[in-house]
Amino acid sequence: MPWILIRKRPAPNYLTHTSAPPKKKQQTIQKPQFRLISFCSRDLAEPTRLIFAYAGIDYEDINIENYKFFQPDLRPTDFPMLDYNGKLIRENDAIARMLARMYGLAGEGYFEQAQVDTIIAIMKELSNSIMGYFEGVLGFKVIDKVGGNV
């Protein structure tokens, strides 16, 4: 079947067209503006705050005591949120990964990025385990104190 590989194909229109290619729109580069919206000063948004501090980025930290007054359709699981130039981003891991990529903290190459993702996954598992423990200690759910199971 070498005849399939050798046959000539017509050139695409954009290569044979004699006029100049269309001009790209000029984009104005603006400094990103960040607003971090969360429940309190120490919560799931702490890794995001650490990235902002390490990268030296100015941001507005908004702490909401009652989320129903902020927007009635929000649930507690919607926090933290990042307002990035007017666009809302939810889920703390997504926020932290985006900021890490933006400011060169996500690692160079696929292997280092995989190591960073591993660290994030370990931190999430650890925080889930700690939350389960404290829910049991504080009496929010019943746990087996010997094995740690529900």
Automatic annotation (TrEMBL):
Keywords: Transferase. One of its GO terms (molecular function) is glutathione transferase activity. It comes from the Eukaryota. GO terms for biological process: glutathione metabolic process. Residues 32-107 form the GST N-terminal domain. InterPro entries: Glutathione_S-Trfase_N, GST_superfamily, Thioredoxin-like_sf. This is glutathione transferase.
